[in-house]
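Exercise 7b. Backbone tokens:
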């Protein structure tokens, strides 16, 4: 494969947006279904208490993992001019992921709870950290418009995860060993598939510590942003565990998982669209950029409305079938959660547009405000309205996020309008 400036692989002929979206949706969809299946297996084989313990471990580890994640994939995928070789990105990813895993180990030791919860926290963090390493190889594939390769990896990762988890949990009835099996499967897939395909045609040379520090500085605002986004998602869970208990947290996690049905499509469309948005912005094609951004936001908003309708008609039946019959009583909560998902999906879509402009720094103060509003709303609403109060908190935070993202996009467009 030919290489271009900065040692990056020369792109293949442009893949259609429809093809990229179809493959990305397939990969994200099957992977999300596998994650959903894991929740279902915990509920059926382990019960609400084990599900709550798993949800708490995920809520505790995800912010650290997201901080270490740095969204390097987006930085790499939008580096259309190949400013740094791929090897620099890999070095940053490995170094920061190692630090993140060390932080999770400290968190597990300081959890102040049972040894079993500490072990769950540690193996959950290990499984998540392996995904961040795969993600940098996805970034190289995405920059080359090789969305099919990413999709195949995500499909395999989802299937391996749910099979390994299900077999281990069924045989051992132990959450720690089941999660350890997931981590082992993901690591094997990283070494056997993601690394060789992601690095194909890329320069693994390193241009020095200075260049890697520059990448880290560029990506750090995105890492902080992902930390804040994760807190925004998980703050209601902390409040639920504090006021309502672990069992109610497990129920909330099971119901909120349905939001991933729509967010899977939103992220698939956003990931497929990001390189094209980045090219429009880089070429100062403001009309094309805005048209594509509007189409993306309108599409995901309509998807959210459809989700509410499905939840209203079939919610109780779906909950009873996928989890346990007693979960059918939470059909009303599902409708509330899917209603909160509508502004959430639009906010995610606008976030991809902002990332395409590489306006990374501007998002940090916005998500500070969003996370603070979600935490404050949760603290006020959960004790009064229970799990529905947590759903309302998510809707309030997402609505504020949309307003802030609109302002950031307006500033970004102002920078290129004069030359458009």
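Sequence design result:
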């Amino acid at each position: 494969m030919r290489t271009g400036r900065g040692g990056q692989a020369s792109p293949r002929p442009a893949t259609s947006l429809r093809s990229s979206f179809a493959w990305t949706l397939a990969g994200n969809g099957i992977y999300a279904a596998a994650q959903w299946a894991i929740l279902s297996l915990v509920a059926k084989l382990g019960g609400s208490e084990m599900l709550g313990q798993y949800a708490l471990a995920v809520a505790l580890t995800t912010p650290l993992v997201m901080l270490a994640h740095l969204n390097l994939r987006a930085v790499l995928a939008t580096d259309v001019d190949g400013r740094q070789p791929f090897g620099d990105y890999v070095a940053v990813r490995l170094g920061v992921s190692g630090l993140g895993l060390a932080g999770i180990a400290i968190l597990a030791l300081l959890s102040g709870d049972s040894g079993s919860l500490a072990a769950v926290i540690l193996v959950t963090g290990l499984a998540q950290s392996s995904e961040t390493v795969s993600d940098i190889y996805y970034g190289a594939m995405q920059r080359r418009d090789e969305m099919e390769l990413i999709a195949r990896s995500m499909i395999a990762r989802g299937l391996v995860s749910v099979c390994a988890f299900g077999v281990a949990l069924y045989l051992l009835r132990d959450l720690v060993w089941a999660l350890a099996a997931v981590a082992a499967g993901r690591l094997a897939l990283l070494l056997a598939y993601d690394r060789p395909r992601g690095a194909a045609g890329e320069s693994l040379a390193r241009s020095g510590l200075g260049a890697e520090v520059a990448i880290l500085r560029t990506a750090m605002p995105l890492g902080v942003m992902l930390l804040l986004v994760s807190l925004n998602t998980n703050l209601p869970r902390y409040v639920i565990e504090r006021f309502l208990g672990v069992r109610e947290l497990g129920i909330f996690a099971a119901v909120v998982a349905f939001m991933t049905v729509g967010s899977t499509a939103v992220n698939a469309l956003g990931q497929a669209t990001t390189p094209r948005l980045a090219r429009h912005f880089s070429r100062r094609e403001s009309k094309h950029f805005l048209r594509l951004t509007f189409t993306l936001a309108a599409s995901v908003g309509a998807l959210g409305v459809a989700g509410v309708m499905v939840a209203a008609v079939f919610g109780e039946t779906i909950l009873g079938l996928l989890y346990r019959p007693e979960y059918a009583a939470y059909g009303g909560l599902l409708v509330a959660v899917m209603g909160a998902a509508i502004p959430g999906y639009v906010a995610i879509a606008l976030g991809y547009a902002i990332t395409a402009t590489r306006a990374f720094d501007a998002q940090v103060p916005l998500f500070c405000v969003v996370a603070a509003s979600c935490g404050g709303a949760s603290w006020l609403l959960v004790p009064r309205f229970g799990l529905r109060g947590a759903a309302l908190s998510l809707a309030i935070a997402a609505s504020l996020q949309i307003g802030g993202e609109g302002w950031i996009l307006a500033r970004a467009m102002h920078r290129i309008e004069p030359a458009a």
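Instructor comment: Residues 5-419 form one domain. Residues 17-69 form the longest helix (53 residues).
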